[in-house]
Amino acid sequence: MSRMTLAEKIGQMTQIERSVATPDVMKKYFIGSVLSGGGSVPAIKATPETRIKMVNTIQKGSLSTRLQIPMIYGIDAVHGHNNVYKATIFPHNVGLGVTRDPQLIKKIGDATALEVRATGISYVFAPCIAVCRDPRWGRCYESYSEDHKIVQLMTEIIPGLQGDIPGNSKQGVPFVSGE
């Protein structure tokens, strides 16, 4: 941190949307993170290869800065890697909550993580672990239930997305699988 200028620190704390992320922008403003939100695709029918090429191109801009700090690329993958052509799209959480099947939810997390990692992305904006008690909230479909016990069961998606914690890991230490 002591080697960083104020502009570099500000840039590293900034996340921009994919549509404005270019190698030049990443380099000029030292951007730390890029987001592909819902519907944010590099092209119509964007294949995994298209997505990989895009992420790598943006990453080259980040790595061309003085300190060569890689950017973090995050994608909205709340019900599968739904912004990639022919990727698996799962029902939204409100539909999955009615299954009351935590092992199914973990498998969905596994599948989503596999498809996201296959496109060069290691960070997802998921899951939504919310208890929707007021249907006026516009994201109720991303909640597994209005019943907190069902929502708690569905948190099995987290080890699905992150991978299981190794047996030799210290308790309380954050873990994300590199697989």
Contiguous runs where pLDDT drops below 50 for at least 5 residues: none
| Mean of all residue-level pLDDT scores | 92
Extended strand count: 4
User: Topology as H/E string?
Assistant: HEHEHEHHEHH
Number of domains: 2
Distance between the termini: 29 Å
**Strand line-up in the sheet with most strands:** 1-2-3-4
How many H/I helices?
Answer: 7
Describe the biggest sheet? Answer: 4 strands, parallel
Indicate the structural class.
alpha/beta
Indicate the radius of gyration in whole angstroms: 18 Å
**Percent helix range:** 25-40%
Give the key terms:
2 domains; 179 residues; single chain; 7 helices; 4 strands
Describe the secondary-structure layout:
Layout: H1 6-12, E1 15-17, H2 23-29, E2 33-36, H3 48-63, E3 72-75, H4 93-97, H5 102-117, E4 123-124, H6 148-153, H7 157-162
Parallel strand pairs: 1-2, 2-3, 3-4
Helix pairs in contact: 2-3
Protein name: beta-glucosidase
Keywords: Glycosidase, Hydrolase, Signal
GO molecular function, one term: beta-glucosidase activity
Quickly describe the structure.
The chain is α/β, with parallel strands linked by helices and 179 residues long. Helices cover 35% and strands 7% of the residues. Belongs to the glycosyl hydrolase 3 family.
Describe the protein's architecture and organization.
It is built from 7 helices and 4 strands, in the order αβαβαβααβαα. It has helices at residues 6-12, 23-29, 48-63, 93-97, 102-117, 148-153, 157-162; strands spanning 15-17, 33-36, 72-75, 123-124. 27% of the residues are buried. With 179 residues, it is of the alpha/beta class. It has 2 domains: 1-75, no CATH class; 92-118 and 128-174, no CATH class. A 4-stranded parallel beta sheet has the order 1-2-3-4, with no helix packed on it. Helices cover 35% and strands 7% of the residues. Helix 2 (23-29) links the parallel strand 1 and strand 2 (33-36).
